[in-house]
Amino acid sequence: MRLSRFIAIFSLAISALAAPAPAITPSPVAHYAPLEERAGTTPTPTGTLCAAGSPTALPLNQTQLVDGITGCVGVQALGTNLTRNDIVNGVCKPFTLIFARGTTEDPNLGNLVGPPFVYALNATFGTNNVAVQGVDNYPGSPAEFCAGGSPEGSQNLAKLISQTRKQCPQTKLCVTGYSQGSAVVHNGISQLSADDTAFINSVVLFGDPDNGKPVGKVPANKVRTKCRPGDNICAGGDMVLQPHLSYCHDVAAEAAFVQARFLVGNVGS
């Protein structure tokens, strides 16, 4: 999402979360940070702010955030910094998730979608069968969003995929992104060799600003894009509305898709 901070919103919303993980309540701030728009979108539903290089101080409605996440399991308050580095640490499991978080979310799994998706995958496959790796070296800044997605994050995601194939050749790999993280997935996978691309078992994108574009050369039947009706980000805009904040409600359905792909296999499918 396109907020450089939403600390105040999280401090107001955290009481509404149904998350089992401990949460850190951050200090409130007196204002909302600006939203910025993605460059190069045609048409641009909300103007040409990114192209002009100037942000606008459009606040995010805190009620929309509370409504978006209420009832979700696993959402993390800003400042929690939930981090998983299983691939970096040499851990191999039957199933592996590489996740790229949204703009300004905490490293390295984010807050709104990454932790709930991990929770859903653990419930689907069993915790002991799941390795999780967040994308590091990824600032996830609004400026990078405007430029089409973090170059550093994209390069690191590509390296993590290659490392996973070499290190854990028997695992089934799912590559997932939320918001700017989806752009990082598009960009990173486009940098892969044919062998690394074929190794990917599934791709799941939540709130994809590049909605409708292919994901490198990954076959379409391996890709699932979840864009909620009314999500301005999926339409190429810069407005973070309630639909973009509500993807935690979709993680179980997307985990079921991932499970179906897991049962099919990798190369040639």
Quick structural summary:
The chain is α/β, with parallel strands linked by helices and 269 residues long.
What secondary-structure arrangement, pairings included, does this model have?
Blueprint lengths: L6 H7 L35 H4 L9 H8 L25 E6 L13 H12 L4 E5 L7 H5 L4 H17 L4 E7 L1 H10 L4 H6 E7 L16 E4 L24 H14 L5
Parallel strand pairs: 1-2, 1-3, 3-4, 4-5
Structure description:
By secondary structure, this protein is of the alpha/beta class. It has helices at about 5-15, 50, 60-70, 115-125, 140-145, 150-165, 180-190, 195-200, 250-265; strands spanning about 95-100, 130-135, 170-180, 200-205, 225. It starts with 6 loop residues before the first helix and ends in a 5-residue tail after the last helix. Residues about 1-50 and about 55-60 have low confidence and may be disordered.
Question: Structural class, from secondary structure content?
Answer: alpha/beta
Find the count of extended strands (DSSP E, 2+ residues). 5
Helix content, binned percent: 25-40%
Element pattern in H and E: HHHEHEHHEHHEEH
- Mean pLDDT level: 80
| Total helical segments | 9
Morphology call: globular
| Spatial strand arrangement across the major sheet | 2-1-3-4-5
Unreliably modeled segments:
1-49, 54-59
Oligomer: single chain
Distance between the ends: 33 Å
Strand content: 5-15%
